[in-house]
Write a structure and sequence with these properties.
The complex is a heterodimer. The relative contact order of chain A is 0.11. Chain A folds into three domains: 121 residues, 2-Layer Sandwich (Gyrase A, domain 2), CATH 3.30.1360.120; 122 residues, tRNA modification GTPase MnmE domain 2 (Four Helix Bundle (Hemerythrin (Met), subunit A), Up-down Bundle), CATH 1.20.120.430; 166 residues, Rossmann fold (3-Layer(aba) Sandwich). Chain A is built from 16 helices and 13 strands. By secondary structure, chain B is an alpha+beta fold. Among the domains of chain B are: 226 residues, FAD/NAD(P)-binding domain; 101 residues, Arc Repressor Mutant, subunit A, CATH 1.10.10.1800; 62 residues, DNA polymerase, domain 1 (Orthogonal Bundle). Chain B is built from 20 helices and 23 strands. In chain B, the strands form five sheets. In chain B, strands 1, 2, 3, 7, 8, 9, 10 and 21 form an eight-stranded mixed β-sheet that branches. The chains are: A alpha/beta, B alpha+beta. At the A-B interface, helix 3, helix 6, helix 15 and helix 16 of A face helix 7, helix 17 and helix 20 of B.
Chain lengths: 468, 642
Amino acid sequence: MVKLSDTISAISTPPGEGGIGIVRMSGPASLSIAKKIFTTPKGEGLNGTESHKVIYGFISDMETGKKIDEVLLTIMYAPRSFTREDTVEISCHGGSIPLQRILSLTLKNGARIAEPGEFTKRAFLNGRINLIQAEAVIDIIKSGSDLALESAMMQLQGGLSKKIALIRDILINVLSEIEASIDFPEEDIEFRDQQELGKKLEATLNDIEQLIDTYRYGKIYREGVSVVIAGSPNVGKSSLMNALLNEERSIVTSIPGTTRDIIEEEININGLMIRIVDTAGIRESEGFIEQEGIRRARSAIERAGLVIFLLDGSEGLDEIDVDLIKDIKRKNKPVIVAVNKIDIGDKISPHNSSPLWEGYHGEGEFLRISALRGVGLDELKNRVLKMIFQGSCKIPESPFITRERHKELLLKAGDFLRRAIQSIHDNISLEFIASEIRFTLESIGEITGETYSDDVLDRIFQEFCIGK
Amino acid sequence: MYTYPKEYDVIVVGAGHAGCEAALASSRMGCETLIITMNLDSIALMSCNPAIGGIAKGHLVREIDALGGEMAKCIDKTGIQFRVLNTSKGPAVQACRAQADKQLYRLAMKSTLEREKRLDIKQGIVDKILIENGRVVGISINTGISYRSKAVILTTGTFLKGLIHIGLVNFPAGRAGEFPAERLSDDLRDLGFMIGRLKTGTPPRLDAKTINFSKLTEQKGDYEPKPFSYSTERIIQKQISCYLTYTNEETHKIIRENLDRSPLYCGVIKGIGPRYCPSIEDKVKRFPDKDRHQVFLEPEGYETKEYYANGVSTSLPIDVQIKFLRTIEGLENVEIMRPGYAIEYDFVLPTQLMPTLETKLIKNLYHAGQINGTSGYEEAAAQGLMAGINASLSIKGMEPVILDRSEAYIGVMIDDLVTKGTEEPYRMFTSRAEYRLLLRQDNADLRLREKGYKIGLVKEEEFHRLIKKREGIKDTIEKLKRGILKSTEVVNKKLKAIGTHIINEPVSLIELLRRPEVKYKDLIQFMNGDLNNPPSPPLEKGGFSEIAEQVEIQVKYEGYIQRELACVERFKRLEEKRIPHGLDFKSIPGLSTEVKEKLSKVKPLSLGQASRISGVTPSAISILMIYLEQFKKTIIKYGNNS
């Protein structure tokens, strides 16, 4: 539970070495805590009157009198801060030691360590940002790639909010027409006929469905894609992973079964976050640990967005390969088939194994690569992107949804709207159509946290000459 | 100062539609009641149009009746044209409307008041509310008499500092031809109430001798007039017609040319008028593309030539009024008997009220009707009734009756007023109700009659009728479920005759009734050999159309009804999260200053009510919820000793 009377504190810059780092406090005691630990070069304390100004000075532990770091301090008084609470930001030298020390000083003097996302939560609870924006800030913090960041920024600037507002506006317009003809039957108002209202609703439903459809991409941007490298033992899966990562992360040996567990790494291809999963060589094995690795590998394939199926060009197809191919086909996963070690041999071609691949859920020719020599890797990356985006790898220009919650609400809205349209076709009385549209608006409103009731009446009086 | 020796339980100030219901309710609930009005001949006067009901307003009248109020019974006796509106639409949005004989209505209501044994009726102008220790103890009037009471209900209509405008001429008046109440609103201001100013208007009344009806469209009442009241058997009086005509470009031209003489457009009128009832000059100005506006000519009674020109409410000077009226078809030679005018008046911001309509500032002082910023006889009467009920219950030390938004339009209206306030004269619309499909005029009795009976306003025999109806509905639905129709040639022939699909398998009568094209009356013919297991006793053939109506609605719209009921459940959960009395909203951390101010002003009783205050965001509600949880825990932990 949030205790809004608390003052929270956290290191706000990412872990690791950096030029500067920031410790941030938010809450009513922020300033008094800062006063206890900050002095100017002249040895004066904070007078606390300067909001939104950078003050130069030192953070010291008053108990020991020891200076900890030279800092720049900024006070932002409520409500003119991100959380709308009194906020103090301390910019110190980067690196974990000064940051940790300053953080623990704030904690010692009355702050509480912030939970993940708690600053954002406060900003939301204090009405600084709406729900969509709050979720977007969390996404920015967590975004693992440039594309995800771009998407998060777009949400923050209200791209989705604007789109939703547009949909809401049309619905309120239609609803106000319906409501006007319900509440003012004796007025001499020329209403659009129901079929025309139906057409407007259909267009809106289309918008909603398109937005729902963007979730597919939105999810990819937000969460990235899991790409699993699968294949028989010793075909070079770990080498390929290392080549893609450009660094030695998993042990590369030629003894089958060296990679006993799955190893997962994130790489960034053209701004898209891709989790590469290196599976243990899948084969029947009696070793318990290896069996566990194999089990995990199969489950990784199960969850994969895409499988890179690696074959050993120097060896040709064996029985295990054939089994695995069947397995992947059964799971209907998108697959890229790559023949590795072509620098040593090239015994596999689609011609000698084509019956096996009939109807596989992949694209184009087999790729020929050498993970060790770095041959064909660019092509492989391109193929990966192409497969994920079905041909396109550009961020859509229109806003898209990245959250399950939004998708669910839009699906709900779409269902009600579909019923509204059906009701119009079935010539059902207007108040029932209004009921469906009201429910649609409520679902839409839940996304942004807005209600519509007063807007409908305002619209009626704006648009229609009422007044018998 | 002379203090009148008789001490009352309740004093009602004003005898309009709110005042009459308030006084009747309190006296019928056993309270010694005084109703005091400036003019005994204006009791229950229809100051504006001679009609009662309409969409949403008709719903209110049915609810008033279900609770034991008087308005429906009075209009049933004195109506001169009855119509059901929206008959092409579903049951939830149909409503009754009736033209009234204005004088007969007033006299019938006056006579009802006079027959009430615990009700005294007196003429006088109230200047002052008497307060002792923060509670009301009576009133004093301009002739130096004070009356003592335990509760006071103010229903002052448009009389508080009423100012009439006709063109650029203006003069103080409560309505045309009557004194305003000049002192009372100052007294209220001194007591600390926030006062606002509204405006409303009325059209000219025309002389029927000078109207050429032959050129106009006649609008008749329904062939079978439907009464408002659940207690009225039949409407027997003669019905008369209204007439429809239209303004035209010439009319609009005259109005446009004279806007500089309109007090509305010269900034003379400061009060805010209703958007749904604009003056003709407003309509012409705001909707220049409309080439005509409707004018309904409504008779004001059987024995009068006065016609109410519905649609041309105006505050233009009289010479302009006559000039533009004479451009209208049928009105070429018309004579005005009373001119149209605008009136500005003070109202007391209704957010200063509790949902009982008692003021937060002064114990046992209640406000009802236009003083709360509403408009319309029905809105006023509904508030008057609730104020009367709650004042009486308070005196008796009993729990108040507060209707919520899922129970009644009355609940929607009062919640809107006390939670959101209003910036224009507030009128009821069905679109204001979240649960419109539940709040129908056909089931007002099922929703509210028992409540009215429990507080003593609904008579024994009226309540008995409700019980019979309730049982009849339940019974009939059971029978329809049990009656299984065989798939025979005879049955299918009958089904074809009704115009619905034939059946190949046995189907229950209730399933059959769910088909849109099948009416309840169609089912009667399937009673004997057509059913596998005929219900006994069989469905009655006649004499219970009210039950048939309910069964049909409940079966046909079950899906919609269930869905709204589910929403009501959710609504109630937030409504049940009570906010402790006297909570200091300003001390809640995390709320913005704006939200704190709004909450402190309205002092919502529940989280649900708080969520409906405009400007209170969902995030503010989350904070409030968290705070209340902590508050509760603290009390549990440390006891409520502080």
